[in-house]
Amino acid sequence: SQKIEQNSEALNIQEGKTATLTCNYTNYSPAYLQWYRQDPGRGPVFLLLIRENEKEKRKERLKVTFDTTLKQSLFHITASQPADSATYLCALDNQAGTALIFGKGTTLSVSS
Amino acid sequence: NAGVTQTPKFQVLKTGQSMTLQCAQDMNHEYMSWYRQDPGMGLRLIHYSVGAGITDQGEVPNGYNVSRSTTEDFPLRLLSAAPSQTSVYFCASRVDREGNQPQHFGDGTRLSIL
C-alpha cells in the first residue's frame, strides 16, 4: 500500500526566513498531491493542489514542488510570520482514487 | 455558507455505550468521508461515501457504521464504544470522488471513552 512520510515532526524557524517542509511517498505514483494547514482544535484547511505534470505551483508566499522521479513534494513558505505557525499536512489520493491519504504532518513554529 | 458542520463538538461516553456523530454539508458535494486523528498516527480514514446510498470502508472501519441516505448528511455510528475509540473525529467533503479537488473539513468531534 502507498506510504506518505513527512520527515520532520517539528520545524522551528525565525520570522522572515523561508520554511521548507518535505513530503515523500512510496509504492505509488499519484496524479495529484495536496497540502493542508491545521490549527490546534480545528479541522485541516486546503492550501494548494499540484498535478503530476506541474513541477511547481505558487500562491502568495506559498510554493509547492512535485518531483515524480524522487517521489517527493516540497512546501515552502517565504518571509514566514508567527501567524504561519501551524501543522502542515500533505495528502494524496489512494491508488483506487477513492480517498485522500494524509501524512502525519509537520508542526511549524515561527518565532519573532 | 456553513460548509461542513459536525455535532457534537465534545462527547464523553462510557464503554459499551452507542452514539452517532453527525456531519452535514451544504455544498451539494457528492463525496463525504470520516477520519479519526490520534497523536502520532495522523489522520486515518474510517469510511467514505461517493454519493447517496453508497458507502465503503477506509483504513480503520472496525467498530464504526455509516449510512448516506441524503447528499447532505453522513452520520458515523459507534455501536459499542471502546476506550480505543477515544479520538478526534473529522468529517470531510469534496465535489466528487475525483482526486483533483480540495477537501473541506469540519472542526471535529472530540470523543472520550471511559
State the end-to-end CA separation of chain A.
41 Å
Assembly type of the shown chains? heterodimer
- Please summarize the sheet with the most strands of chain B: 7 strands, mixed
Low-confidence runs of chain A? none
Which features would summarize this protein structure in a list?
heterodimer, A: 112 residues, 6-stranded mixed sheet, 5-stranded antiparallel sheet, 11 strands, 56% strand, B: 114 residues, mainly beta, 7-stranded mixed sheet, 0% helix, 51% strand, globular
Fold and architecture overview:
The complex is a heterodimer of chains A (112) and B (114). Chain A has strands spanning 3-5, 10-14, 19-26, 32-38, 45-51, 56-59, 62-67, 72-77, 86-93, 100-102, 106-111. By secondary structure, chain A is an all-beta fold. In chain A, strands 2, 4, 5, 9, 10 and 11 form a 6-stranded mixed β-sheet that branches. A 5-stranded antiparallel β-sheet of chain A has the order 1-3-8-7-6, with no helix packed on it. The mean pLDDT of chain A is 93. Chain B starts with a strand and ends with a strand. Chain B has strands at 4-7, 10-13, 19-25, 31-38, 42-51, 54-57, 64-66, 76-78, 87-94, 104-105, 109-113. Chain B contains no helices and 11 strands. In chain B, strand 4 (31-38) and strand 5 form a beta hairpin. With 114 residues, chain B is an all-beta fold. In chain B, strands 2, 4, 5, 6, 9, 10 and 11 form a 7-stranded mixed β-sheet that branches. In chain B, strands 1-3-8-7 form a 4-stranded antiparallel β-sheet, with no helix packed on it. At the A-B interface, strand 4, strand 5, strand 9 and strand 10 of A face strand 5 and strand 10 of B.
Topology:
The complex is a heterodimer of chains A (112) and B (114).
Chain A: E1 3-5, E2 10-14, E3 19-26, E4 32-38, E5 45-51, E6 56-59, E7 62-67, E8 72-77, E9 86-93, E10 100-102, E11 106-111
Parallel strand pairs in A: 2-11
Antiparallel strand pairs in A: 1-3, 3-8, 4-5, 4-9, 6-7, 7-8, 9-10, 9-11
Chain B: E1 4-7, E2 10-13, E3 19-25, E4 31-38, E5 42-51, E6 54-57, E7 64-66, E8 76-78, E9 87-94, E10 104-105, E11 109-113
Parallel strand pairs in B: 2-11
Antiparallel strand pairs in B: 1-3, 3-8, 4-5, 4-9, 5-6, 7-8, 9-10, 9-11
